[in-house]
Amino acid sequence: MNLTNRTSNLLLLFFSIAISLAFLEGALQLLYGTSTRSDDFVWSCDKNDAYIEENECFGRFDNFAYTRYYSKAGYRPLENWKGRGVRINDIGIRSDMTRQELSSINLTLFSGGSTAFGAGVKQADIYSNFVPNAETAGVGGYLFANEFDFIKDYLTDTLKPKVWVALSGWNDVYAAYRGFDYYTSPDMLSVQRALYTANILYRNAYIPKVIQAQTTITPEKFSIKLVYVAAKIAELSGLISVPNTTLQSNDFSYEQFWFRFKNEILTAKHFADLNQIKFVFALQPSLYVTKKELSSNEQKLLETYNKLFPNLDVHFKKFYPRLEKDLSDLSQQYDFPFINTDLALEDVKESAFVDHVHFGSIGNKALGLFLKKQLLDPVPIK
To answer: Which DSSP helix (H) or strand (E) runs through 280?
Structure first.
């Protein structure tokens, strides 16, 4: 085969793959369409001590936005969507500003799951409103890998944020409790988990190599999700052998969890550095391990969730103290700010939590004011 024929065949192969991927993306978008999942459960407003306004309570406002299929992160909010107290802008984040307006300011962008999204409160009461030039790109159900993909592949080039604050951690720790990478979300119940998630072995085998080979494969050029899919295809095709590691609740050790989580954070930090973005990790609070003095309603919530999720409190008490210390050490070693946001709740006498992870407007305000102080006038946190 001469050089010309070889080049032609390589080009043909490249275009065939590109067309196939584009067709697959379109077909899956058509298949899954948009999710119309919305939380219609409304708590009694006579138990609203987590809210500033008397007529508000958890469940009155949407906890999720409608979503569309998105191969990189699994799904993302539907652009220009309006719900109960929720407005999504033209790039798919919970903001009243357009993408053009956001790209013209020194933007601080929060990422994370439903807490970062502001689940439980109306648009005006989101924590990010208390931080100058800040908006939230949180999406219900996201793990850190999801939010990294969303920031890296979809938002960075358009919005050009100056600061990226990952308000994260809770969902990843919960995933460890479930015993797998918990990429399925209430918004995407129809999605096959095998297509969008992968065994811990894939991450353990791949991400460290990315960090070690920055000169040839830099993090801004790869998609974690596509690596997972490729690994899954290779496994199903018999090209690689993966032991059966189906895990039961609480079988995910902290060491397994931290190895994966640490490497994802370092990859994100490297990406942020390459794009001249200041990366900040803010560990979100949890009802199970908060140092806040619980209100009577929060005590009842804790009792309720201990019945709903056996041993989840034990799991969080095992993981969170170690995670807090390891994140603090990692931030000092790799020079990025770490914020323990549980400290935002120290002086809150009313209820901050409305369940085991989300906040009412009182908790959002306390969180927002604390983040504002830490981001604008950082104080060392022990």
So the answer is: strand 278-283
* Confidence band, pLDDT 50/70/90 cuts, at residue 379: low
| DSSP 3-state of 156 | helix
> What's the CA gap between 137 and 28, in Å, rounded?
23
> Which of 228, 280, 258, 243 has its CA nearest to residue 116?
280
Look up residue 99 and give its two tokens. 């993408």
CA dist., res. 294 & res. 356, Å (int): 12
Look up residue 109 and give its two tokens. Answer: 């962008």
CA distance 102 to 121: 22
Concatenating the DSSP letter of every residue in 305-365 gives: HHHHSTTHHHHHHHHHHHHHHHHHHHHHHHT--EEEGGGGGTT--S--BSSSS-B-HHHHH
Position 316 scores a pLDDT of 96
Reported pTM:
0.76
| Domain chopping of the chain, boundaries | 1-32, 33-376
Q: Which two tokens stand for residue 122?
A: 């109306």
Say which residue, 191 or 227, is predicted with more confidence.
227
**Residue 66, number of CB atoms within 10 A of its CB:** 20
CATH code of the domain made up of 33-376:
3.40.50.1110
d(CA 371, CA 376): 8
CA distance 330 to 173: 17
Give me the sign of the Cα torsion angle 150, 153, 158, 161: positive
Rounded CA separation 124/101 (Å): 18
The answer to whether residue 211 scores a pLDDT higher than 70 is no
Tens of pLDDT, residue by residue over 177-187, are 876 544 433 33
* Cα 76 to Cα 92: distance, rounded to the nearest angstrom: 7
Q: Are strands 74-77 and 108-112 parallel, antiparallel or unpaired?
A: unpaired
Residues facing 134 on adjacent strands: 108
Q: In the predicted model, what is the mean pLDDT of the chain?
A: 78
Q: Distance between CA 380 and CA 374 in Å, rounded?
A: 9
Q: Tell me which H or E stretch contains 4.
A: helix 3-32
What are the Cα distances from residue 60, in Å, to 115, 204, 339, 351, 364? 16, 41, 30, 17, 16
